[in-house]
């Protein structure tokens, strides 16, 4: 069986190189937090209003070294769910600083208390971004967003990265690629790909067009066996989301 050679220039020495160092842009890479909030159905409108009143104030305040990347409601997938993504420039020290400062923020603590009354459950993950993906930047709308999440077999993250370093070139033609991330804390060996489309019809056309590029079928053939489980959410941006 022919296997394409690795796209990474450096040879991987598992005794010296952590996978995260090989897959990210550099050792100063941004840290991301993704939050999944399952909201009581009768509280969804009030929850959205609460988020839209509170989250932008943190995003816009330079006192906190963090940025709101995007905030959405799930349209197709898990219902009555909100997804938030934050970026911490400076990695774990920035995250620690933000969490410490927010505990002293009375407005935020009131927000958390009110939010807690509206939730059925919540979970989060800390993520790093793949070096070969775009860094998510604000974009105008209207768009729908697809969050495709892949639970990989342990030990396969480098192989996934090798294939997608080439595959991402097939998926840039309509500026649909927003960001690609892999987990550091939370569910491990988890990959998230975030895409933007004008609508569901544009999503279908864009995904079908990828099969016209020589090499895309090979990427799919070799990456599918690396996956244990996969999930797709179609999401609608909240009014406060920088990604519209």
List the helices and strands and how they pair.
Layout: H1 19-23, E1 31-39, H2 44-60, E2 66-76, E3 81-88, H3 92-102, H4 106-118, E4 119-129, E5 144-152, H5 157-167, E6 177-185, E7 190-197, H6 200-210, H7 216-223, E8 227-237
Antiparallel strand pairs: 1-3, 1-4, 2-3, 2-8, 4-6, 5-7, 5-8, 6-7
Function: Protein involved in mitophagy. Accumulates on the mitochondria surface in response to mitochondrial depolarization and acts as a 'eat me' signal by recruiting proteins involved in selective autophagy.
Family: Belongs to the NipSnap family.
GO cellular component, one term: mitochondrial matrix
Mean pLDDT: 90
- By DSSP, the count of extended strands is 8
Estimate what percentage of residues fall within beta strands. Answer: 25-35%
Number of separate helices:
7
Question: Based on helices, strands and strand pairing, what is the structural class?
Answer: alpha+beta
> Helix-strand pattern, N to C?
HEHEEHHEEHEEHHE
Function: Protein involved in mitophagy. Accumulates on the mitochondria surface in response to mitochondrial depolarization and acts as a 'eat me' signal by recruiting proteins involved in selective autophagy.
Main location: mitochondrion
Keywords: Autophagy, Mitochondrion, Transit peptide
Organism: Esox lucius (Northern pike)
